[in-house]
Amino acid sequence: MGTVPSALKHCLSYQHLLKEQLWIGEPAAPPPAAPHPGQVSQASGLPEYIKIVEVGPRDGLQNEKVIVPTDIKIELINRLSKTGLPAIEVTSFVSSKWVPQMADHKEVMRGIERHPGVQYPVLTPNLQGFHSAIAAGATEVSVFGAASESFSKMNINCSIEESIEKFEEVAKSARNMNIPVRGYVSCALGCPYEGNIVPAKVAEVSKRLYSMGCYEISLGDTIGVGTPGSMKSMLEAVMKEIPLSALAVHCHDTYGQALANILTAIQMGVTVVDSSVAGLGGCPYAKGATGNVATEDVIYMLNGLGINTGVNLYKVMEAGNFICTALNKKTNSKVAQASFSAGAIN
Amino acid sequence: AGLTLSLRAQVSAAAASGALPKRVKVVEVGPRDGLQNEKSVVPTPVKISLINMLSETGLQVIEATSFVSPKWVPQMADHTEVMRGINKLPGISYPVLTPNLKGFQAAVAAGAKEVSIFGAASELFTKKNINCSIEESLERFDEVMTAARAASIPVRGYVSCVLGCPYEGKISAAKVAEVSKKMYSMGCYEISLGDTIGVGTPGSMKEMLTAVMKEVPVGALAVHCHDTYGQALANILVALQMGVSVVDASVAGLGGCPYAQGASGNVATEDLVYMLNGLGIHTGVDLQKLMDTGTFICNALNRRTNSKVSQACCRL
């Protein structure tokens, strides 16, 4: 392994610089043609394949201080489409009054390249948003419930029950149009207002979303307070109501627990993990703290576990570098930080 | 086929359920490993205050300093003053690094009651670091072991580069097991396995520990994970699931990585304790007092904490 003189390094493109990184390794092999749900690796007892759902363009950018121009958003999504990621959450069809960062939802939806084999879900909080999303070309939507009444009230000004009723309207229309719906449950491991959340409540809300037709339920540790202990208890309760193959985890890294929590979920058989390129998206409930777990760090861990994701880590890091440059911020991904910092060893 | 499936499921369930230790001993390495790898050199009174504050948190082991030549490690030049200056609370151990007999003797003269020695699982790393082979480095420690035994001073052994080396790249688990076995046979009561550049993942951690546990009883093992690639807590979780019950960490995540400029190094003690608390594992450590100590040293160093728990200013 030769060392690259630093002067030469400055001339090299970002990609070449990345290739010098010994620890990133080769791109992961493509996923098996038809992975059986819950197919378990012989040696480790872990799933053979994990689906990564990239939420950077939506959850990430929505929680960044700087509002990103439409063309940058489109460029980011197009780059992510080339990494092998199977699902990229594109935008949110909510009123721009509430979420100005997502005001350009139509332009983004219409402007992005649509790669075959990649899903581009969008958030639709109600029927109006759903219709708008479909008109703009969306082929998959997501609805957001919460396991906390207080959070539901503070966030969308209605009770959990009322929010479920709204989602049922969306689910019904979606069913008629053969549009898959993904359900999110926020505050699965704790709430900024209520504190502790009972696993049974998470199971109850998950079941409601699943029964109305959501094909997948993403369980979100919204404020990142969960630990492997609370993750396990929560999943045990939810797994009584929802098949494992329909579960995903959406962990925030606000307390540094995300990868340990994700590992716990994977050990229990969860095969879908949400993450955000460069760890975009701070935590709106803890000033200055981080939010989403970084896609790069998740993939690094899964690669090390011999688990297929189909995702090229180098390309994700490049996309991460692109958006961080555009946002003029440092990446939240430790893998990216380590890979760019590693100087030549003499 | 049905039987194999259910057996696999059981193994999986056991792994998932963790069969975790009920108690974990946290070895605080901030004052030594942490400060040694910080850019700013910290004045002696600040070091002493740091260690005294750590002594009030419930931590049972606090690595105080290193008796190496100040020519090599200027940050630890005040080792004698620090050792003499700190409050040594009963029930707390204050191990110090001793690279050779001279350092050992200086340490004992300054009041040390426990010492540590450092080996590595990589020949190139050993050559670059201390200009000899692994075999030769262990021979040098023989003298220390003999003197320590005579003085009834426990010796902790560190193995560096257990999950990867900045020069050699991949490190074979068998090599780690071999070096660990040697150090354990020499008389080290505990072997701390260090992921020196933080490249390890739960996969490589498991593979390495499986090999080492064939040679050294799990009760004598510790893990020393670096968070350079964000993998530390996941790696520690796997180690716990395999029965390891001693974990090294550094308050505020002090100590960058000398092999990746600007990258982080040691895992933060606060973040570790937060996870262990959530798992219902007893550590005896008061997280609030620990965070206060982290705040103190970060102010003194004029730097931000590397602990995410501290950053979140959590409402526990």
UniProtKB/TrEMBL annotation, chain A:
Its EC number is 4.1.3.4. One of its GO terms (biological process) is L-leucine catabolic process. It catalyses: (3S)-3-hydroxy-3-methylglutaryl-CoA = acetoacetate + acetyl-CoA. GO terms for molecular function: hydroxymethylglutaryl-CoA lyase activity; metal ion binding. PROSITE patterns: HMG_COA_LYASE (PS01062), PYR_CT (PS50991). It holds the Pfam family HMGL-like. SUPFAM superfamilies: Aldolase. InterPro entries: Aldolase_TIM, HMG_CoA_lyase_AS, HMGL, PYR_CT. It comes from the Eukaryota. Keywords: Lyase, Metal-binding. Residues 50-317 form the Pyruvate carboxyltransferase domain. GO terms for cellular component: cytosol; endoplasmic reticulum. Pathway: Metabolic intermediate metabolism; (S)-3-hydroxy-3-methylglutaryl-CoA degradation; acetoacetate from (S)-3-hydroxy-3-methylglutaryl-CoA: step 1/1. PANTHER family: 3-HYDROXY-3-METHYLGLUTARYL-COA LYASE, CYTOPLASMIC (PTHR42738:SF5), HYDROXYMETHYLGLUTARYL-COA LYASE (PTHR42738). Belongs to the HMG-CoA lyase family. This is hydroxymethylglutaryl-CoA lyase. The lineage of its organism: Eukaryota, Metazoa, Chordata, Craniata, Vertebrata. The gene is Hmgcll1.
From TrEMBL, chain B:
The keyword Acyltransferase does not apply. Coiled coil: none annotated. It is an enzyme of class 4 (lyase). Gene3D superfamilies: Aldolase class I (3.20.20.70). GO terms for cellular component: mitochondrial matrix; peroxisome. Keywords: Acetylation, Disulfide bond, Lipid metabolism, Lyase, Metal-binding, Mitochondrion, Peroxisome. Belongs to the HMG-CoA lyase family. This is Hydroxymethylglutaryl-CoA lyase, mitochondrial. It comes from Trogon melanurus. The lineage of its organism: Eukaryota, Metazoa, Chordata, Craniata, Vertebrata.
